[in-house]
Amino acid sequence: MSTPQDINVRQQPAVAATGSGTDTILATKQLTKEFGGLTAVDGVDFSVTEGEIRCLIGPNGAGKSTLLELITGQLSPSEGDIYFDGNDLTEMDTHERIDTGLSVKFQSPHIYESLSVEENLRVPLQRTDRPVEDVLAETLDRITLADKRTTRASELSHGEKQRLEIGMAITLDPTLMLLDEPVAGMSVDETADVAELIRSLHDDGMTFLVVEHDMEFVRRISEQVTVLNQGSVLTQGTIEEIEANEEVRRIYLGEDA
Amino acid sequence: MSDNGLAETASLDRIRGWLEGPNTYGNSLPFWGAFVVGVVALAAYPQLVGVYTTIQSARYFALAFLALSLCFIWGYAGILSFGQVAFFGVAAYAFGIIGLNFSSATGIMAGLVGAVVVGTAAAAIVGYFMFYGGVRDTYVTIMTLVIALVLNTFMAQTAGSEWAIGAAQLGGFNGMDIPSLTLGVGQTGFELERAALYYTLLGALVVTYLGLRVLVNSRFGLTMVAIREDEARTETFGYNVPFVKLVVFTVGGALAAVGGVFYGSWGNYIDPTVFGIAFAALPVVWVSVGGRESLLGAIGATVLIERMRTELSSGIGPIGSEWALVIVGGLLLGVILFMPAGVVPTVADKIETFRARRSEKGQSTPPTEEAVE
After folding, report:
1. Which tens digits make up the pLDDT trace of A183-222?
2. Are B118 and B92 in contact (CB under 8 A)?
3. Predicted TM-score (pTM) of this structure
4. Measuring CA to CA, which residue among A88, A51, A39, A58 is closest to residue A236?
5. pLDDT for the residue numbered A14
6. Which of B206, B168, B22 is nearest to A122 (CA)?
7. Structure confidence at residue A13 (pLDDT)
8. Min CA distance, B229 vs chain A (Å)?
9. SS3 assignment, position B247
10. d(CA B93, CA B169)
């Protein structure tokens, strides 16, 4: 964003947790979610380091989306804790978690269909103390929808809707941006646009946690990858390490080792 | 043009900026011209018609507050309450109870304030338990209707002399007397009746309408619309959705309460049918017909439908009110089938389409004012 220096002005120090030291910004501890007899997330210790783009991959049913919903508070955990930027999120309501510096974009577009593009952006933006008109213009440029400012959101293409929703999420100027399959259903060109958008936001200092299926897209944006399988962390590392890992190839990429 | 004129234009533009926006219909100079003409015509109306018609019209205005209360919470925040009559009726009873016990002008003025506070507080309590308890959508509709029906049953059995609060006998099905609205201090007061009540209600209605326009076009209005469109998503932008809905519902309750006080003091009488299902359904009909997202549509539909009902029952006797029910039912059915958004939004959209097409044809002539949104 335009004011990356703001991001680091947080009162409390980041939680020291399982990861790589004091710059860990998000950490889950023994996080567990059970649905009846099914354990969707099973004692996950997971962390995101400030300033990175971390991708969360894994086969269907691995618990990726559940983990995301536990972080944002759509679901409450059966056991375990979630720490973010000096806050214990575990008992907080969703809107309180957002106020600690999180922002999220879920998999299917959830925009306000009957409102214009501009109004869609104003909804999250008007809550912040950022200069509304400046950020609005800048965000419209960033998501390349400046010429559709007054268009009804229902008239946008799928890719434009996805970009709009990312735009809405980033107007909050979050410390950590959570994205659930941001390029699902997108064309090759649209995917490239989103990858570029994420990279440019990252260059400005935004931290990302991206749940993704598309390995090509992961390779494009990611530095660090965590592999989830059957509700547990299987392994983590750089994209090269992950792709070289035989167990990952067998389970996730469907190859016989 | 003088500097003074320029300054005037600038401040007029500023006022229009508050009143206009994407959340209301009628954002053009012609609209405001027609609005002023309409208000002037309504102000002249008592001079043109008899006392009876003036008094009846005051009743329609009182009911229009009830319509605005539903239009505001349903049209803008998506909260369909079938029980706005509960807060309307509670305020009317509260006004009667306070007014009968303190029958000075001061007492009645206090009753006005007290009754609105009671009605508003009732809405706040109901809203708190619903929205913080996670009650949503259809369940809100059912729960609010049940609250009205429970009040109906409860008030119906208050006929005995033990059901008295000070000098006020609740009276069961026989109803309760309610004093007229009185302006004044101590024992010297001016009773608002006939034309005076008409003008008071007209003024209050115009002010309330303009105030609600400012509110729905404000940041808070955008928040309400966002919650109506997608509650879960709005929460993930950091909004405290239950709190916002509570505020909206409480404001709606206050509007209904104001209407209830006016309505009770208009007829000097209130009875439990105010909580009954037949009356509870009327605000939903008015607002559906006029247009959920049009405050003026809700007011207009209320006045016209209620006038039609009154004329029918006074014109052709008891059978007239039966016919009125059939017509109201038919009207609701017709609107839902052919104009699901209501009359005013449908017509306004037609006008906008027409204007857009016309300006497309004559590309060289730009539109003279912002199109009716």
Report:
1. 888 888 889 989 999 999 999 999 999 998 788 899 899 8
2. no
3. 0.90
4. A58
5. 40
6. B22
7. 40
8. 6
9. helix
10. 10
Note whether A144 contacts B: Cβ–Cβ < 8 A: no
Note which residues in 12-71 of chain B have CB less than 8 A from chain A.
22
Please check the confidence at residue B1 and state whether its pLDDT lies above 50.
no
Nearest CA-CA distance, residue A253 and chain B, Å: 33
- Whether the CB of A176 is below 8 Å from some CB of chain B: the reply is no
pLDDT range class, residue A12, cuts 50, 70, 90? very low
The answer to whether residues A202 and A220 touch, using CB atoms and an 8 Å cutoff, is: no
Task: Tell me the DSSP string of B25-50.
Answer: S--SHHHHHHHHHHHHHHHHHHHHS-
Those residues with Cβ within 8 angstroms of residue B159's Cβ, 6 or more apart along the chain or in another chain: B171, B172, B173, B174
Structure confidence at residue A37 (pLDDT): 86
Rounded to 5°, angle at Cα A244 from A239 and A250? 110
Q: Which of A115, A106, A166, A175 is nearest to A140 (CA)?
A: A166
- How high is the pLDDT of residue A59? 85
Confidence of residue A9 (pLDDT cuts 50, 70, 90): very low
pLDDT tens across B269-285, in order?
999 999 999 999 999 99
Complete domains list, chain B, with CATH:
28-361 (1.10.3470)
The conformation of residue A116, written as its DSSP 8-state character, comes to B
Touching check for A172 and chain B: CB below 8 Å?
yes
Q: Report yes or no: A113 at the B interface, CB cutoff 8 Å.
A: yes
Cα pseudo-dihedral B353, B356, B361, B364, rounded to 10: 170
Q: What percent of chain B has pLDDT over 90?
A: 77
Of A98, A106, A113, the CB nearest to B238: A98
Pairwise CB contact (< 8 Å): B241 & A112: no
- Mean local confidence (pLDDT), B18-44: 94
Chain B residue with Cα closest to A132: B219
Work out the number of other CB atoms within 10 angstroms of the CB of residue A60.
Answer: 7
CA pair distance B87, B340, nearest whole angstrom: 27
Structural domains in chain A? Answer: 4-251 (3.40.50.300)
Residues listed for chain A = 257
Give the Cβ contact number of residue B183 at 10 Å: 14
Residue A254 has pLDDT above 50, yes or no: yes
Q: Is A126 in contact with B232 (Cβ distance < 8 A)?
A: no
